[in-house]
């Protein structure tokens, strides 16, 4: 699937390879992954969207999950030189639409994400609810590693 937006941004589906994934992660100073980790992450994604400008990849996002009850938006990465150009919006809209296409009619699917501190307003714009709330506790995380943190 290739899709043109109103600008020169091009959205492509499942075109991200390990090298590009690692390069985009490094561009935003995210922790490094092994090539095996990166390949597994890509292989186990429901979809990987990538935005190109003049043929050059400038952003990506993955959708992971079971495709029925819960999906997660993961690794929404915009190269620093391409931020604030609509790339994040294009990726968010495409990932939300893809998740919606998986949802069975008449059912509810949770679409979750974890965002960097200070980025909450961007995601609230797309309908995400910051936690905790009166009814929902905080999100939680556990790092599984060979050494204690």
Automatic annotation (TrEMBL):
Residues 9-145 form the N-acetyltransferase domain. PROSITE patterns: GNAT. Pfam families: Acetyltransf_7 (PF13508). Keywords: Transferase. It comes from the Bacteria. One of its GO terms (molecular function) is acyltransferase activity, transferring groups other than amino-acyl groups. InterPro entries: Acetyltransferase_Butenolide, Acyl_CoA_acyltransferase, GNAT_dom. The keyword Transferase applies. This is Acetyltransferase (GNAT) family protein. The lineage of its organism: Bacteria, Bacillati, Bacillota, Clostridia, Lachnospirales.
